[in-house]
Design a protein that fits this description.
The protein has 157 residues and is α+β, with helices and mostly antiparallel strands. The protein is built from three helices and nine strands; from the N terminus they run E-E-E-H-H-E-E-H-E-E-E-E. It has helices spanning 52-63, 65-70, 96-102; strands spanning 11-18, 23-32, 35-45, 72-81, 89-94, 110-116, 125-131, 138-146, 149-156. The protein is globular.
Length: 157
């Protein structure tokens, strides 16, 4: 069955985001006549992106540990796999000082973003997913913006 060209399922945009250079490359794919085709590629600087505000914050958050610590919610909600039971989770909170030893490696450098269909971003909430390519593990970082400041408010693995 062919999908309509204006369907949400007929457009995917893959973005390669360079946090250090503050630019991104956007690849647009459309489902045309039942086949996915690359229809455009654009280079964009952060200030032209609709997620500029978050990208600017996250570039600093991922590279500056002191800044990171001041932008972790106090206390931070966490949900982690239970090491003693398969498929069980432990929920709780940690303080900002514990964050660095709890999760020292946030995604940095070059990251990717995948948009399905035409997406409007929530200017007050972003979720970043870190996935292991060979081990199937994933981590979720939940950020919210209040009083013009972004903060990490929840972490899950």
């Amino acid at each position: 069955r062919l999908q309509k060209s204006d369907s949400q399922d007929s457009l995917v945009i893959v973005e390669r985001i360079d946090l250090t250079e503050e630019n991104l490359r956007s690849f647009e794919f459309k489902l045309l006549e039942g086949k996915w085709k690359l229809t455009s590629m654009r280079d964009i600087v952060f200030h032209e992106s609709d997620i500029y505000d978050f990208l600017t914050f996250y570039a600093r958050f991922s590279s500056d540990t002191l800044y990171q610590e001041t932008h972790v919610e106090q206390p931070l909600k966490v949900m982690v796999l239970d090491p003693e039971e398969d498929d069980a989770y432990i929920e709780g909170t940690i303080n900002a000082e514990q964050w660095r030893s709890f999760c020292p490696d946030v995604p940095q450098g070059i990251i990717s973003n995948i948009r399905y269909g035409v997406q409007k971003y929530n200017s007050r909430q972003m979720i970043l997913q870190k996935s292991g390519s060979s081990n199937g593990l994933q981590e979720l970082f939940f950020f919210t913006k209040e009083d013009n400041e972004w903060h990490l408010v929840r972490y899950e693995n």
